[in-house]
Request: fold
Amino acid sequence: MISKFFSAFKISLTTCLFVSLGFTPFEVAAERLKDLAGIQGVRQNQLIGYGLVVGLDGSGDQTTQTPFTVQSIINMMQQLGVSIPVGTSLQLKNVAAVMVTTSLPPFAQPGQTLDITVSSIGNAKSLRGGTLLMTPLKGADNQIYGMAQGNVLVGGVGASANGSKAQINHLSVGRISSGATVERAVASVLGHGNIIQLELNTSDFSTASRVVEAINKRFGADTAAAVDGRVIQVKAPASNDQRVSFLGALESIDVTPAQNAAKVILNARTGSIVMNQSVTLDTCAISHGNLSIVINTDNAVSQPNALAGGQTAGTANSNITIAKDAGQLMVLKAGASLSDVVKALNSIGATPQDLLAILQAMKASGALHADLEII
Reply:
């Protein structure tokens, strides 16, 4: 049976799908340049700090197992002028040691506020209702760039689902909206002289070439030049005001990116599969346990009519047959693709492990023209 269907054919997959959803054909559309690339020097900087959350309702750290919480309280009290006798055993139930994290956006200035995330690092049961005490936020250079303080909000606490009470969020993590104030700005330099550099989010020589073409078409020849598949040099005005206006217009240019590399992503734990429109499938035969899959081409030749000049016409229809326990279960015809194979396998109860093994076998045999990524 296998020898009957090894005639070459290729099926183009023109859908991007989740297996559990429907399939919607689409074409690559133009995107704004700001969605495809960033400007070198314009970036966020991560900040981190260690602090204390107080005012908890008995749900704080167990001090016998988190000595750093007691040490932090003692140090804080000494800085506030309160002396605690040596050897005093503190039984703190309303205090939790936490890490505070946030990101400092580009061009942030002193006085601006930032949202922060507060996460317990001890064994506190909940941060609900607590207050974060003043916490310095440091960057990678160990310099202080912000100060955080405020009431911690733990979202979703006590929410009910389907009429039954349930706590559906992590109680050891909370947020404070506008909970940090920027104390120091990070110097940002937009290029050197009259040159700025664009960095594509994903390296792609075709997309880089199209970006250069679009910029030169908008601002004139020799305005942009590609350095490699990711970096593009652009000539910009030297004046700060003119440069900002220029960058605003630059980011709004529409560019049609190149088609992405063919990729199939499989989550082996949940069985979810995502594939893009570049995936193609060649003829193959697969046997996996009690499942068998045959993908072939049915070549049909029509007889010439009186006006055809003796020329015959041929058509090739793709057929995918999926059988279970040696009995034919379903046949997919005319344009069937990898998405149809996956959908059919799901309909007969194939497990994520079955899908993983089958896709790996198709990739190893060369029938699956795509990168297979397993997460």
Remarks:
- The longest strand covers residues 291-302.
